[in-house]
Design goal:
about 10% strand, four-stranded antiparallel beta sheet, single chain, alpha+beta, about 725 residues, five-stranded antiparallel beta sheet, about 60% helix
Length: about 725
């Protein structure tokens, strides 16, 4: 099939290129934008059965301002001394100044004695905002508050910082925009430089950039069309991950094709026949690798957390488009260029002798047992680091420390419980729609205040009530200030367990209590995340193994290949734990990281296994003994695996330049994971195990049987003509 496809593409390049240009233009013009189907509210990604979602629904039904936001202005003295009476008067005047600025979306600005910390170190000004934290006008309002407030305290003993959910989102947005600008430039430069070193050709270096740009223009529109048709919730992180996935697999697939094409030219094929042969050989590998990635991504549909579920089909669409481009658009362009794709280098005309990969291959073939024990031992040792892993849901820790919202949170903690940044709200409603007994609700609030870990209650009004009643009196809300950061694991444990138990058990007779707020929400996200990881990983592993089994017509090889992939995942996670929790001072890794590693290390890392096992099978079919086949597979397949792994690992490593904690973790983790997958698993562990197992590796099929036993090895396709 791929030989016929290759022949059509190579002999009709302009038809293929025009087809891609027309399709890209049509999708860009007529398809919706990805931003049109993007959702930023985490609660919308959880099923309605979770308590935090039920609490939010109750809030929206009973309290008119449930969907509104707020900004917290934290005021303190520059010398660190307690605020004086005149300072407090100045804070009151500042609140009035912000109110009188008539900033759009600001509904009210309040402060007063109740906003002064017990130790008088800080005083808070609360600005109500009409709209959700991700509303652009709400974000603009926070920036305008900063612009009004900062000059007002200039030259005084006071300093201030604006913090809270909206301020954090604003700073987060700015930090990510800066980070991705840096990372984007670094990624493109790195890919071009590495490809220049590999091919010594500017054309070959630019080919992946151009191809990925075309696919990047098409994929978002297709994803948006599917999202609209299926009511799929798309997370705001998709665009970022989508770009990285396309650059990653796109560069890999193009490398596989160019390495094979160069081999065919070195073997004496003419420019057209060599390219057809390259597409025929590499097409099967790309299709199998893409199928494994698509299955791994689609397994995310089993997730209950919608942010993960939406990534599956969206990324699968992008992978299919990229794989199709790799076997059609790229060969069409190369068909027009021919060997000039490697210009001005002449290295494609001769096979290098005494290469590093030849030496590695010979060592693997001679000492497979030692290689298997050593490479497997390194991976097991790194995997032990996962035993100390902790998940971190702290949103404030993800921001650079020099952002204003981070500084404001630190200042707030000097006078108030950390939970004052984002109170945990307990909602009470009458089971029969009856009006609530205010005294009973007040007693209930005081009982909640006694729960260990609760630092206090935010007053509901100037008279100091603990609960605010809805307009019809059938519901109440109690804002609790937790002692720990609202995003810390300790706070999540409290809001998702002990606090809920007490709230449910102690609610006034005839009422129901629900724990809501950001802390309760992330406690439910954590539960959903834990459940998803337990379900998705085994299912994806089984499905990928099935793809490998169908490709190799074997049961044994897919088993040890998947064991290697799973071991690669845990060794990557363990290495990341050792780096950030061991050598660093992080309390834990971002809760998103295991899923990110699943997407990149397990799914994309499987590409290298498929490439190497296909090469091993082909060398065996050429009549080589298992150890010789392993040596030749590493010699000829190693360069493309090594080059692809180096580029992909370097691309992700550039994310560590962004200055954002999550990007640093993600960049390091995926870079080390790809390095392990390419240079330890695929180049050492898999070939050595295959050499040790010999013919048994292909049981019950005969994948290593010579294609034509009557012909001597030298009369058939050259050893160098295998998959690369």
């Amino acid at each position: 099939m791929f030989e016929r496809l290759g022949r059509f593409v190579v002999h009709n390049p302009w038809k293929v290129i025009i087809g891609w240009v027309v399709a890209a233009a049509a999708i860009v013009v007529f398809a919706p934008s990805l931003s049109d189907v993007t959702n930023t509210d985490q609660a919308n990604f959880l099923p309605g059965s979770y308590e935090s979602v039920k609490a939010q629904q109750l809030a929206e039904a009973s309290f008119a301002q449930a969907n509104d936001s707020s900004a917290t202005i934290v005021v303190r003295r520059t010398d660190g001394q307690p605020l004086t009476d005149s300072d407090q008067t100045a804070v009151g005047a500042l609140a009035q100044k912000i109110q009188s600025a008539n900033v759009e979306r600001v509904t009210g600005v309040v402060t007063g004695p109740q906003a002064l910390s017990p130790n008088k170190q800080v005083q808070l000004i609360s600005a109500g905002l009409k709209g959700l934290p991700d509303d652009p006008l709400v974000l603009d309002a926070v920036q305008q508050i900063r612009d009004v407030a900062k000059p007002a305290v200039a030259g005084t003993p006071l300093t201030l910082s604006v913090t809270g959910d909206v301020a954090m989102q604003l700073d987060n947005q700015d930090a990510f925009e800066t980070a991705f600008l840096i990372v984007g430039i670094a990624t493109v430069v790195l890919i071009i430089v590495l490809l220049l070193l590999i091919y010594r050709s500017p054309i070959a270096a630019l080919l992946p950039i151009v191809t990925v740009s075309v696919v990047s223009a098409i994929s978002p529109g297709l994803i948006a069309l599917v999202a609209e048709a299926t009511d799929l919730q798309v997370d705001q992180s998709l665009q970022i991950i989508l770009t990285i996935v396309l650059y990653g697999i796109g560069t890999d697939y193009i490398l596989f094709l160019l390495f094979r094409y160069r081999e065919r030219l070195r073997e004496g094929d003419d420019r057209k026949a060599g390219l057809v042969a390259a597409v025929a050989r590499v097409g099967e590998v790309i299709a199998s690798a893409a199928a494994a990635i698509v299955i791994a991504f689609m397994a995310l549909l089993l997730a209950v957390f919608g942010a993960f579920k939406s990534l599956g089909p969206a990324l699968a669409i992008a992978v299919v488009v990229m794989a199709f481009a790799a076997v059609t658009l790229v060969p069409a362009v190369v068909s027009l260029l021919g060997p000039k794709v490697f210009w001005p280098s002449k290295s494609w005309q001769s096979t290098p002798k005494g290469s590093v990969f030849r030496g590695i291959g010979r060592f693997v073939g001679r000492r497979p047992a030692i290689v298997a024990i050593a490479s497997g031992g390194v991976m097991v040792a790194l995997a032990l680091g996962t035993l100390g892993m902790k998940s971190d849901y702290d949103q404030t820790a993800q921001l650079p420390e020099d952002t204003e919202s981070s500084q404001g949170f630190r200042d707030l903690q000097s006078g108030f419980p950390a939970g004052a940044l984002n109170p945990t709200t307990v909602y009470v409603r009458g089971d029969g729609g009856q009006r609530l007994d205010a005294a009973a609700v007040e007693r209930f609030a005081q009982r909640l205040r006694q729960v260990p870990g609760v630092g206090g209650i935010m007053p509901a009004g100037e008279s100091g009530e603990s609960a605010a009643l809805s307009q019809d009196g059938t519901a109440a809300q109690i804002n609790l200030l937790l002692a720990d950061s609202p995003y810390s694991n300790e706070a999540l444990d409290l809001a998702g367990d002990k606090l809920r138990d007490v709230a449910h058990a102690e609610a006034p007779p005839g009422t129901t209590a629900l724990v809501g707020g950001a802390t309760s929400l992330f406690a439910d996200v954590r539960d959903a995340n834990d459940r998803d990881l337990r379900v998705i990983f085994p299912v994806a592993a089984a499905l990928i193994a099935l793809i490998l089994g169908l490709m190799l017509r074997s049961i044994v090889a897919p088993v040890y290949l998947m064991v290697a992939v799973v071991l690669g995942f845990f060794s990557t996670l363990g290495a990341t734990v050792l780096m950030f929790q061991g050598l660093g001072d992080r309390p834990g890794l971002s809760f998103m990281l295991p899923t990110i590693l699943y997407l990149f290390v397990v799914a994309i890392g499987t590409d290298y296994n498929i490439l190497m096992i296909a090469r091993l099978r082909e060398e065996a079919r050429l009549g080589n003994e298992p150890r010789t086949a392993a040596a030749l597979a590493v010699e000829h397949g190693g360069p493309s695996v090594g080059a692809a792994g180096l580029i992909l690992a370097g691309t992700f490593a550039s994310m560590m330049l962004g200055g954002v904690a999550f990007l640093s973790e993600m960049g390091f983790a995926v870079a080390i994971g790809i390095t392990i997958a390419a240079f330890v698993m695929s180049m050492f562990l898999v070939p050595s195990l295959t050499a040790l197992l010999g013919h048994a590796a292909w049981w019950p099929g005969h994948g290593d049987v010579r294609d034509d036993p009557e012909l001597p090895v030298d009369d058939r396709s050259p050893v160098g003509a295998a998959v690369s």
